[in-house]
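quick one: zinc ion bound model?
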Amino acid sequence: MNDPHSGLFCPSCRVALNEALVCPSCDTHWPAAGGIADFSRGVYYDNFNDSTVLTDEHRAGLALEMDGARRRIVDYYLPRIPKSARRVLDCGCGNGISVDLLNEAGFEAWGNDLSALRKWQWRERQRRDRLVVASALELPFADEYFDVVISSGVIEHIGVEETSYPRYTVRALPNRDELRRTFFRELLRVLEPGGALYVDCPNGRFPIDFWHSDAPGRPRFHPRDEPFLPSFAEIERYVPNERAEALSPYKRLQFHQAARHWYGRLLGTPMSLFFRLMPGWIAASALNPFLVVRIRKSDHKANETE
Ligand SMILES: [Zn+2]
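yep, here:
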C-alpha cells in the first residue's frame, strides 16, 4: 500500500516523503511554511529574518536581479530545453522567478536554494509548491527525476569562504574539490541518462570578474590561480565520465548592469558580436569572461559506478 506522496524525497534517506513531508525511513518531519518545504535543518547560507532591514542598495540589487533572472531563462535557457522535456530543475534558483517562468512554459519546474532571504522572497512566487529550501549537495529529489538541470552562478561558491567587508575576499576550504565533486555527482544523480546539465559561472581563466566584488557591476581583477572561479578544464575534471562542452554565453551574458558604467558601455556592442560568433574552443578559453558548460549525462550505467 502506498501513501500518497509529495513528489519530494528525504535528502538523507532518499525515500519518498508522504504528503505531510514525513520520511517513512528516518521519521523526520520536514517543515513547510507557506507551501515551501524546508530541508535546511535550520542552517542557511545567509542570515536573514523578518526583522532584517534591507538597505536601499540591497533592494535595488534585488530588483535588478528580477530582470536578470527573466532574461537568463527567456533569452538563454528556454530555447535550449527540448520540447520533449518534462521536468526541469533550476539548482540555486535565487529569487525563484525562473521556476514560475518555466512552469508557465509548460514544464514541471522545480527550484532550490539554501537561503533564508530567498525563502522570504519566495512568498511572492506563484509556484511556492515547486520551491524547496535545500542544499545543492543534498537534493530532495528522486534519482533521474529531471530531463534538464540548470545551475547558474552556484559552482564558484561551493567549497570557498567569502567575505564582503571591508573588501571582497575569498579563500578555498581544504575540502573544496571534494565538495565541488559532490555537487556535480548530486546534480547528475537527479538527471536522467541522456539529459543535459547546464552549469554557468564567471570564467576563472579570464582576469576580470564583473560579478563578485565590493559593489555590483564593479570589475574585480584577480589572479588566474585564485581558488574561486573555475575554468572549463576544472569543470571537466569534476565530471570525468561525462562529455562536457563549453557554449558561447551569447544572450546569457548581457551587460545591463555593467552598462551603467563606462566599461559596460565599451564592452556592450562589440562584445555582443564577439559572443554571437564565438566557437566552442574560444568559449572554453581565457578569452571568454563567462563559462556556460553543457554536460550530457551518459547512458551507460557502467560509467556511474566509481
Ligand atoms: Zn529520511
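The mean pLDDT is 89.
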